[in-house]
Amino acid sequence: MSEPLLEMSGLTKHFPIMGGLIVKRQVAQVHAVDGVDLTVHAGESVGLVGESGCGKSTTGRLAARLLEPTAGTVRYRGRDIAHSSRRELKPIRPEIQMIFQDPYSSLNPRQTVGGIIRGPMEVNGIAPPGGRNARVRELLEIVGLNPEHYNRFPHEFSGGQRQRIGIARALALEPKLIIADEPVSALDVSIQAQVVNLLQALQRDLGIAFLFIAHDLAIVRHFSQRVAVMYLGKIVEVADRDSLYERPRHPYTHALLSAVPEADVTAEPRERIRLAGDVPSPIDPPSGCRFRTRCWKAQDRCATEEPPLVRLQGNRDGHLTACHFPEDPTSHGGNVILDPALQH
Amino acid sequence: MTTPFLSVRDLTVDFHTEDGVVHAVDGLSFDVEKGTTLGIVGESGSGKSVTNLAILGLHNPAHSRITGEITLDGDELVRAPKSQLERLRGNKVAMIFQDPLTSLSPYHSVGRQIGETFRKHTGASRKEARDRAVEMLRRVGIPHAQTRVDDYPHQFSGGMRQRVMIAMALVCDPDLLIADEPTTALDVTVQAQIIDLLKDLQQQFGTAIILITHDLGVVAGAAHEVLVMYAGRAVERGTVREVLGSPRHPYTWGLLSSMPRLHAPVDVPLVPVRGTPPSLINVPPGCPFHPRCDFQALAGPDMCRGERPELSPHRGHGDACYLTPAQKQDIFIEQIKEHL
Predict the structure, then answer these.
(1) CA–CA dist B229, B237 (Å, integer)
(2) Which residues of A touch B200 (CB under 8 A)?
(3) What is the pTM of this model?
(4) Residues A322-334: pLDDT tens digits?
């Protein structure tokens, strides 16, 4: 395999919670990301899935070094940038770009589309051959917008078109890695597919690596070659796409997959796994395995000993699972109903 | 023939704005029977929510014009006086909204909010209302209901808040429950719990449910019948099996083939619907979908821009499109099916 482009190891981010009446001091901390190891190779698309509050967006921001980690390393092309200064980061910034979820709040309403896309080039002092305006038109064309619209303002565009503007801005500096944080979840279904297809074409034609963060497992499966599943700040399972979706070993991955509603009316009825309750608070995560409070397989050992993220017997190379009592990939587990309202 | 429990006929909702008249719903008809769920699917701005607020009489008459007929169990609702609607709301018809945090009052305990509806419609005492609230919380699966009844909305998680909303909606055993995107703000594992809970409660109490959603997967799992809306109109109607299994309208094809699937082969490309939905101030003439439709040339010259197509046949699996049934079947089998 090619050399890793981005390598995160032991990555941790704790946000302090301040309290106190007169003197503000730290009373607790949110364990947003707690020891994440993840690698993105050049030209590869890695999906990061999980429910809200699991730390996937924070991981994305740490990878782009928009946040400084509490502990751990972020290596970009072999160099640790975890605690680099702004000056040290400057040459790397153009190579790592972000696409945000909300196409409304991520574009400046007072700037024209041309200004928005030109921005990154101006900040970094890049003068493409033919001039910046020519490059803006070229970028608008690449993302499927009318190049003559560079003088318009964001409010004149629909949600899907705005997301294309955000993509054009991310492409302006010819990045090697794009961190896309829920890039299509704010869009309608028919528009979602337009944007997913565009991102896929960019990845293929321009060889850009993606860290694709989303909660929608079907879209991640469509877009990513490798997928990591996060739960409460930790990666519980990571594998190549086929292994993860066809042979999930972690009970949480299994539950997540079985909960996805499917529009296929002819398919065989699937097994139902219905967890009870919601994700616990990341302020005080459970000891040992963090999923144990919602897991139907949990035993005493899960509370005391944290399962390491390792390759289990029978798994393909690169398929890592953090579980003491993993699912059997060969047998059909049957229904698991933990929700008290559904038990009767 | 018996009349359906809820019947909506030729419903039109217009809003007067500074920019012009917004035709939010235009000539919509559908029925819902007791104990069944109708899924209304469509993208943002297709008129799903406006239709259901009209059933509850929640549009401000100063800014809107509503025509047509809405009959609920024999009562006509469009021209009903305010007092009659107030007796119905929360009692016979109840609603669950998308965002449970903004639709619950932060200043009152959940028990009081659940009990308020009950006291208003039954004249129960405070004590009876509280007992009823505990019973409802238990029914929707909130642990320690006896103590949780005095908690405030911020003390509940997102999924638990949505359960509180459901408890509040069901407190008077309504005959019709309108759920407007009830799971959109929730995570998948919680969404699955809530959908199962709604199905479960429907089986116990025979409630009729209108489930508004943009997610065809949710409809497939929870509804019996489906109505697909586009630009304020119904473009296809039928049972879940009919509409999702053998869809007939080009817009339904577009929705289905633009959705990534968990079990389809990974190399099947998504086929989006080109263009964007129309403005409801200037709805295209004829079929509102024609500017985005790839098949309008097949229907004959200018057919799709002329007269507006109606749902046909009138009963069962119907769609509003000028293509002949044979054309639709051929296109579906040759071009669409491989993408599903």
Answers:
(1) 9
(2) 341-342
(3) 0.89
(4) 999 999 877 666 7
B139 vs B133: CA distance, rounded Å: 10
A251 half-sphere exposure, CB direction, 13 A CA radius = 23
Q: Which amino acid is at A78?
A: G
Which residues 6+ apart lie within 8 Å of B204 measured at CB? Answer: none
> A221 and B140 in contact by Cβ < 8 A?
no
Residues of B in contact with A225 (CB under 8 A): none
Structural tokens at position A254: 């299994």
- CA B214 centroid distance within chain: 9
CB contact under 8 A, A342 and B141: yes
Q: What CA–CA distance (Å, rounded) separates A34 from A309?
A: 13
Query: Could you state, in order of their start, the residue ranges of all structural domains in chain B?
Result: 99-173, 243-339
Chain A residues within an 8 Å CB radius of B192:
258-259, 261, 272, 274
What per-residue confidence (pLDDT) applies to A1? 53
A237 contacts: CB under 8 Å, gap ≥ 6: A228, A229, A244, A248, A249, A250, A252, A253, A319, A320, A321, A322, A323
CA neighbours closer than 13 Å in the CB half-sphere of residue B136: 28
Chain mean pLDDT for chain A: 91
Residue A79 touches chain B, beta carbons under 8 Å: no
* Integer Cα distance of B225 and B221 in angstroms: 11
How big is the A-B interface in CB pairs under 8 Å? 151
Q: Give contacts of A272 with chain B, Cβ < 8 Å.
A: 192, 196
Question: In this structure, what token pair is assigned to residue A218?
Answer: 């079907």
Residue A203 identity (one-letter amino acid): Q
Bridge partners (DSSP) of residue A17 are: A28
Task: Provide the angle, in degrees to the nearest 10, between the axes of the packed helices A189-206 and A159-171.
Answer: 20
Identify any residues that bridge with B28 across adjacent strands, giving them in sequence order.
B11
Q: How far apart are CA B100 and CA B115, in angstroms?
A: 17
Distance in angstroms (rounded) separating the CA atoms of residues A25 and A31 = 17
**ipTM for the assembly:** 0.85
Report which of B144, B89, B85, B157 is spatially closest to residue B111, judged by C-alpha positions.
Answer: B144
Amino acid B318 reads G
- Across A238-257, average pLDDT: 93
A268 touches chain B (CB under 8 A): no
Question: What's the pLDDT band for A23 if we cut at 50, 70, 90?
Answer: confident
Q: What are the pLDDT digits (tens) for A135-187?
A: 999 999 999 999 999 999 999 998 889 999 999 999 999 999 999 999 998 88
* Dist. CA B198–CA B166, nearest whole Å: 8
Residue range A180-232, pLDDT digits in tens? 999 998 888 888 899 999 999 999 999 999 999 999 999 999 999 999 999 99
User: How near does any CA of chain A get to the CA of B339, in Å?
Assistant: 12
Distance of CA A336 to the CA centre of its chain: 28
- Tracing tokens 């739960």 back to the chain, one arrives at A231
* CB nearest A218 (choices: B190, B254, B262): B262
Q: Which of A104, A189, A223, A240 to mutate to test the interface with B (most CBs of B within 10 A)?
A: A189
**Is B160 within 8 Å of A255 when comparing Cβ atoms?**
no
The answer to whether B178 and B30 have CB atoms below 8 angstroms apart is: no
Q: What are the mean pLDDT values of chain B's consecutive 10-residue runs (340 residues total)?
A: 85 92 94 95 89 90 92 91 91 88 90 94 94 93 91 89 92 94 85 90 93 92 95 95 94 92 83 87 92 89 88 90 92 86
> Which residue type occupies A10?
G
Helix pair B126-139, B110-122: axis angle to 10 deg: 120
Chain B residues in contact with A217 by the CB 8 A cut-off are 188, 262
- Given a contact cutoff of 8 angstroms between Cβ atoms, the answer to whether A62 and A33 are in contact is yes
Q: Give pLDDT, residue A331.
A: 66
